[in-house]
Amino acid sequence: METSRHTLHRTASLALIALLLVGSAGVSLATSGEALAVARPTLLDVPTPTSCDVLAARPLTLNRWGFMTIRGDELTRHARRSDWAITLLDPQFRLPSNYAPASTSLTWIDTHARLSEGRGWQLKLDAAVALRAMFLQAREDAGLILRVISAYRPYDLQNRLLARLAARKGINKARTLIAIPGHSEHQLGTTVDLRGYKNGAWMAANAYRFGFVRSYLGEGRQSETCYASEPWHWRFVGTTIAYEVACSEQVLRIFLWERQHGADRVIGPNCGELTPPVDYPMPEPSPDPNPSAEVGPSLEPSSEPVQSAEPSPAP
Prior knowledge:
The chain is α+β, with helices and mostly antiparallel strands. It has helices at residues 2-22, 52-57, 125-142, 155-169, 171-177, 201-206, 222-225, 239-248, 252-260, and strands at 60-62, 68-70, 74-75, 93-94, 106-109, 115-116, 121-124, 147-150, 191-195, 212-214, 233-236. It has a domain at 77-273: Muramoyl-pentapeptide Carboxypeptidase, domain 2, CATH 3.30.1380. The relative contact order is 0.12.
């Protein structure tokens, strides 16, 4: 009976998506699995990722299993389960439809991020432990009462959520608000949607210390993230990568893109104000190649210093 109910849900979702696709301009129902070649500019260092405007203009199609996909997308480079912290997902790169975290790595949590038994939401254990610690610290520091409203989503659940939203807003609007199946960070089992963050100031300043980053920033950065601002969406990447993302002041998509292409780390102007993780390998200061000889005190009085007309900037 349960299997029949799930089959009915999936059939209804696929039928709804098919109708929405037919009624949407610029959307194709071709089921070819071949990806279109993507022309990337040839640069000396790191290639530029395909722009969000170009990705948003790509038509949607149905794959051989009847799920919605983006024409021309491709499998992400880091698609193994062990790559969860560095897996790049956006409208260009996706996970396979059968990707799922190992069942032994998932745990159940309740709305307060406390471990539960078979109720609430599923999340990777490391992420769940860090999330609970962050909830407690947020309450102690800022009086925030955070709540979990979504966590791990398998491929077919993402498809149903997309169909539901598309029925209300249209598929072209829905694709900017929720990821196409396979492109969602929730499928990794390390991402949560939260309620109770208020203005988000505490989260923005402290989430990295617990290994979480906000994937979809506002403040005019949709052209870098490819999605509308989502202050409730937080992905666990571990404290080291979260610190480096915060230090760089890049959006996660660009950080991961440059990382997988071997680019040097970006050090933002405010990085010195952040707290690195315990045992983080900080660079050693470079030795002075021309140390000056030690000079003894002068016997002659020094000239009177000249007062600057403008105050010197603070170091």
